[in-house]
Amino acid sequence: MKRDTIYITLLILALSASCEKKQEQAHEGHGEEHEAMLSLAEQERIVANIQIDTAQVKTIFEETTLIGTAAVDERNINLVSSRVKGRIDKLFVRNPGTFVKTRDPLYSIYSEELLSYENEYLLAIDENRKATTQKEITQRMVDASRRRLELWTLTEKQINELEKTKSISPLITFYSNRSGYLSDLLVREGEYVEIGSPMFRLADLSSLWIEAQLYSSEINYLRQSPTLEVEFEAFPGERIKGEIVYDNPRLEDNTKINLVRIKVDNQKGNYKPGLMAYVYLKRNRKETLVIPKSALLLENNVIVWVETSDGMFEQHMVDIGIQNKREVEILSGLSPGDKIVTRGGFLLNSAWKVKQGGGAMSGMKM
């Protein structure tokens, strides 16, 4: 660190001495208006690592960053309830976060009630087979018994197997009729359940909520029709679009922080609940003169170094408007097409101060 400081100091002194000599030779005719100027040889530009960009009219916006956490979209949670009365014999899904596919087994249940319906179905089939008259009536009895089993969510395969084997059992396995992640397990093995007893919550993660924190002073940002982008900490540099799911943020208990929910698409399933996320609110979008924020030097005034057409470097004092992490609006002091110094400006500024003996920037352009 000490060696770097010495190197920078020597470089500043060298630039200052070199610039003073060159300005005496090359700018005798510039007059007082261009006093705040420096000249560098090509090698000095390389050593100082001078980098140039162009001031241009483009779209800029203010950007506010919120911290949030991914959560399950509560509108995509499906409650799985018991369709029969009985005792839970086995749970095939136990751990929250487990992915359940359609037709995966969920649980087995011991149900005397279901046993009686299975027996009723087999008796109806037997009566229909034996009947010589009123065949239509007995067939309707078979159909009604089958529909009752279907209402208990027995699959067609299970019913056909029952008809084929004629083997009834009070123990039956129920399968999921949808896919999703287990968010809550509400029963235990050995527990007795009634018809309609809640058993599982399955969450569809094709979309997620980002629950972000917003200070009360920032609530007005949501009324400015901001564009929202979300970046997960686990996926740096990967931004996706988001949308506010409701306009009335909830104030967290005993704090001045509001909780706002932003919906994001998750069709690929890359993101999981619990991930930390950054929410970028882009607002006040406008077309204006813009430069990289790295070009600004904050002194008593805001300063930008500009490369002139004859290869000199000139100080400009600027007025700035809205800004974000990367860019800033220029209200005055620059024109479209100006070549501005985005890197190395600190060295130029320091060399100029040494050259002036630490005095005021008398020749600065406004």
Structural write-up:
The protein is of the alpha+beta class. It folds into three domains: 131 residues, Beta Barrel (conserved putative lor/sdh protein from methanococcus maripaludis s2 fold), CATH 2.40.420.20; 90 residues, Elongation Factor Tu (Ef-tu), domain 3, CATH 2.40.30; 126 residues, OB fold (Dihydrolipoamide Acetyltransferase, E2P) (Beta Barrel). The protein is 24% helix and 39% strand. The protein contains six helices and 23 strands. The strands form four sheets. Strands 1, 2, 18, 19, 20 and 23 form a six-stranded antiparallel sheet that branches. β19 and β20 form a beta hairpin. α1 crosses α6 and α3 packs antiparallel against α4. The longest helix has 25 residues. The radius of gyration is 37 Å and the shape is rod-shaped. 25% of the residues are buried. The N terminus is likely disordered.
Which terms would index this structure?
366 residues, 3 domains, 6-stranded antiparallel β-barrel, conserved putative lor/sdh protein from methanococcus maripaludis s2 fold, 24% helix, disordered N terminus, Elongation Factor Tu (Ef-tu), domain 3, alpha+beta, OB fold (Dihydrolipoamide Acetyltransferase, E2P), rod-shaped, 6 helices, 6-stranded antiparallel sheet, 23 strands
